[in-house]
Amino acid sequence: MKNTEKRNLLQALKASDSFSESRYYEVLEKIGDMKYNYGDYMITEPIDCNKELERLPEADYDLCCALLTMLLREDHFCNGSFERRYKAGEVQPILDRMITLLPDGE
């Protein structure tokens, strides 16, 4: 999938203002950027989501995908956490960074 297509899907997800974790799973899988091995990108053991999110300002695209996957997996274990994080403003900045980091024309 071309980066312009990825960017369009990510922008549509952001514009939908949805905190449905299933919608985020769907988009990440569709664009081929679900990081099933997200733990490989993390630096805390056990994974500390709050500490990992502090890395966002310097994150590359793959780390952003891993951070978003991490939040989705956190919700699997702590039902409702994705919605809480979304409402707290912790999800949209990941999408913003992902959109910014996608190079044009690919």
Briefly, what is this?
With 106 residues, the protein is mostly helical. It is built from 6 helices and no strands.
Rounded mean pLDDT is: 93
Number of helices: 6
Distance between the termini: 9 Å
The secondary structure category is mainly alpha
Using DSSP, what is the number of strands? 0
**Helix percentage range:** 55-70%
The parts where pLDDT drops under 50 for at least 5 residues are none
Q: How many whole angstroms does the radius of gyration measure?
A: 13 Å
Total domain modules? 1
Largest sheet: none
Q: Write down the overall geometry.
A: globular
Strand content: under 5%
Write the element-wise H/E pattern from the N-terminal end onward.
HHHHHH
Question: How is this structure best described in words?
Answer:
With 106 residues, the protein is an all-alpha fold. It has one domain. 59% of the residues lie in helices and 0% in strands. The chain contains 6 helices and no strands. Helix 1 (3-16) runs antiparallel to helix 6, helix 2 runs antiparallel to helix 4 (61-77) and helix 4 runs antiparallel to helix 6.
